């Protein structure tokens, strides 16, 4: 689910959207009938396919350029997920988007079909049960793209793994939303640097959450309590943990951190009657190797490495910012 207060934490540039708009000037997808909750809407049989995506549009015309942008982004996201996890999605995999023109219609549909109470902060959500992403036409228009892409990551991860720990659902979507090379604009590079520096402030002031607590959180209210209503920090922490699993090992030329993550996810799949957060945390504690210098193991050892990873990336971010400032001064 994507929430407005945390929008700044996954950022896809408006420029990316407008750049992708140049790909096509074809006719728009025509609007469907005026908003009315119908049997096909409830059954999910009113979608129309366009490439990797399927759409059910209510009350307006979705521009073909936006469809192209979503398909382009989704194709790259699928490739990156498959590279990261060494898994293939079925060739028949598609992502279904249900988009309403009016927020009130989106809100009403969420309540009727999914019993979800939606406020203006909730930009969109993915339903594993309905196999659809539900959102609404947003203002400004480019906001629809990052919302749809973020939720698309949820759809991909659900198709690959099924139920996942809450932190990983949101953290991986943020990570994949910013990590691919095709998204490495100046804006996103700066966003990643800012994240590391925000996290390092928490580290230096002793305010990073204990991971034996954080890894067991399973909803946004838990994050609100943990971070004094700054839910965005919950995203940042999850994003950094996912990055530590994937990137730290790659930087060191080893793959065992990523294998431990994959193994923990697999064990959660094998124990569907136990909360995935609990299964993941237990597996991590059992399998993460001891830090011989500090004589700590399991989650404590992982946490120490994660703190080091934050510090390392924050220092690199600070150095990069200084170099850029010096370059700008020389160009004046």
Molecular structure report:
It contains 13 helices and six strands. The chain has 332 residues and is α/β, with parallel strands linked by helices. The model is unreliable at 4-26 (pLDDT under 50). It has a six-stranded mixed sheet with strand order 1-5-6-4-3-2, sandwiched between helices. The chain folds into two domains: 2-162, Glutaredoxin (3-Layer(aba) Sandwich), CATH 3.40.30; 181-325, no CATH class. Helix 5 crosses helix 6, helix 7 crosses helix 13 and helix 11 packs across helix 12 (276-287).
Key features of this structure:
single chain, 332 residues, alpha/beta, Glutaredoxin, 2 domains, six-stranded mixed sheet, 13 helices, 6 strands, globular
Helix/strand layout:
Layout: E1 2-3, H1 14-21, H2 39-43, E2 48-50, E3 53-58, H3 64-85, E4 95-100, H4 103-114, E5 122-127, E6 132-136, H5 144-161, H6 166-178, H7 186-204, H8 211-214, H9 220-226, H10 231-252, H11 256-270, H12 276-287, H13 298-331
Parallel strand pairs: 3-4, 4-6
Antiparallel strand pairs: 1-5, 2-3, 5-6
Average predicted local confidence, pLDDT: 85
* Helix count, DSSP H or I runs of 4 or more residues: 13
CATH architecture of the largest domain: 3-Layer(aba) Sandwich
**Superfamily at the CATH H level of the largest domain?**
Collagenase ColT, N-terminal domain
Q: What is the radius of gyration computed over CA atoms, rounded to a whole number of angstroms?
A: 21 Å
Q: For the largest beta sheet, what order do the strands appear in spatially? A: 1-5-6-4-3-2
**Major sheet:** 6 strands, mixed
Number of beta strands: 6
- Class of the largest domain in CATH? Alpha Beta
Overall domain count: 2
Q: Characterize the overall form.
A: globular
Distance between the termini: 44 Å
Q: Structural class of the secondary elements?
A: alpha/beta
Strand content: 5-15%
Secondary structure: helix percent: 55-70%
H-E string: EHHEEHEHEEHHHHHHHHH
Q: Looking at CATH, which topology of the largest domain would you report?
A: Glutaredoxin
Low-confidence stretches: 4-26
């Amino acid at each position: 689910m994507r929430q407005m207060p945390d929008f700044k934490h996954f950022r896809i540039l408006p420029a990316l959207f407008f750049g992708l708009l140049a790909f096509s000037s074809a006719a728009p997808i025509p609007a469907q009938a005026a908003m009315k909750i119908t049997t096909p809407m409830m059954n999910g049989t009113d979608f129309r396919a366009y490439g990797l995506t399927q759409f059910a549009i209510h009350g307006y015309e979705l521009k073909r350029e936006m469809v192209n942008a979503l398909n382009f982004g989704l194709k790259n996201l699928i490739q990156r997920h498959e590279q990261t996890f060494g898994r293939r999605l079925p060739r028949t995999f598609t992502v279904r988007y249900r988009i309403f023109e009016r927020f009130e219609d989106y809100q009403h549909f969420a309540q009727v079909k999914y019993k979800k109470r939606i406020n203006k902060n909730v930009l969109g959500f993915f339903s594993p049960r309905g196999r659809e992403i539900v959102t609404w036409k947003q203002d400004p228009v480019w906001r629809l793209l990052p919302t749809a892409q973020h939720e698309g990551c949820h759809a991909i991860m659900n198709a690959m793994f099924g139920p996942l720990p809450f932190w990983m659902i949101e953290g991986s979507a943020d990570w994949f939303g910013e990590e691919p090379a095709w998204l490495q604009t100046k804006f996103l590079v700066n966003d990643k640097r800012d994240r590391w520096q925000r996290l390092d402030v928490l580290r230096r002031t002793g305010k990073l959450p204990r991971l034996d607590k954080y890894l067991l959180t399973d909803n946004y209210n838990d994050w609100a309590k943990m971070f004094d209503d700054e839910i965005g920090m919950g995203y940042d922490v999850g994003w950094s943990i996912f990055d530590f699993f994937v990137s730290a090992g790659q930087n060191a030329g080893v793959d065992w951190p990523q294998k431990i993550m994959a193994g923990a996810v697999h064990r959660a799949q094998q124990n569907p009657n136990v909360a995935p957060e609990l299964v993941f945390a237990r597996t991590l504690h059992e399998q993460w190797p001891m830090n011989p210098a500090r004589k700590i193991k399991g989650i404590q050892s992982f946490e120490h490495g994660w703190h080091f990873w934050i510090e390392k990336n924050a220092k690199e971010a600070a150095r990069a910012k200084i170099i850029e400032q010096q370059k700008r001064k020389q160009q004046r």
